[in-house]
Amino acid sequence: MKVRVYGVQPDELKLYEEAEKQGDLSFDFAKAPLNEGTVNEVQDCEAIIVMTNCQVNEKVIEVLARKGVKYVATRSAGSDHVDYAAIKKYGLHACNVPFYAPEAISEHTILMALRVLRNEKKCNAKLASNDYTMEGLRGRQLGQLTAGVLGTGRIGRTTMTLLNGFGTKVLGWDPYPNEPAAKLCTYVERDELLKQSDIVFLHCPLTPESYHVIGKETLSMMKDGAVLINTARGGLVDHAAVLEALESGKLSGFAFDVYENEAAFVRKKKTLDEINDPTFAALLARDNAIYSPHVAFYTDGAIYSMIEVTLDNLRQYQTTGACRNEIKEEAGPV
Q1: Which domains does the chain have, with CATH numbers?
Q2: Residue 135 known to be catalytic
Q3: Where do the H-state alpha helices sit in the chain?
Q4: Tens digit of pLDDT for each residue in 145-182?
Q5: Global pTM?
Q6: Annotated active-site residue in 262, 267, 324, 329
């Protein structure tokens, strides 16, 4: 099976070279992400591997189908960048990596929370200006806070386990509560979680129901001075509303590894002028807002696992025509 691969980093090539030695898969590596402008570059491939910055909409899928592509494998847990209805319409199959290394994302989530709570960005700015005073640097201890976790799947549960280690009181909400999470948190209704939490963590999948789950209305329910952490999907947050909440003091901090319009700049080198997003620029300028460019997942263990599962998915299609990680109609788990 010939596979066109998008988003491969130089340090990942060895993993594909080792896989190619098995003789059942061969790879063609693309430099630019898959989108309407690059889809015509696909030639003689039965499958493609995509990243979250790829555009897999109906127009792209129609061209893929015409070119003989049968399988779309996304190298991620989330699958909201894949139009599943179009996948079905044109007779393709799509799969994801439901889980790989939840510890990677959860560790980064806690790191970002601590950076906000301990005013790391302001501290670094003071040091850069030769200011060694403590003014403005008094932080908050994670273990003394009430944390609310929206989304109690594998990653949410891993984050809750880490929070328990700090001694944090943990509340949880999920439309589908589960027994393992119930041992790590106290389940409450979503609005109650927002009202009670000093710090809110987002670990939800992005679906039509969860789009902008954090917006003006839900922000108004949160405690004055609450902190928001998002390492799940950018579309969960109305960033303009969050900026307004930071400016008013309703939120005392915001850390985000994902951004709703990130496809325009993530994995690229661009100036803020080139990005041309005033809300994003304003967030980056704030001492109490910390951003990382969608790298929460990016560890040695996670990358190896993601590639291994993705290739196994394609081998299942190749040998049986089916895959246990076939994407369902709803967005994939986070």
Answers
A1: 2-100+299-320 (3.40.50.720), 102-291 (3.40.50.720)
A2: no
A3: 13-20, 58-66, 84-89, 102-117, 120-128, 154-166, 179-182, 190-196, 216-221, 239-248, 272-275, 278-285, 300-320
A4: 999 999 999 999 999 999 999 999 999 999 999 999 99
A5: 0.85
A6: 262
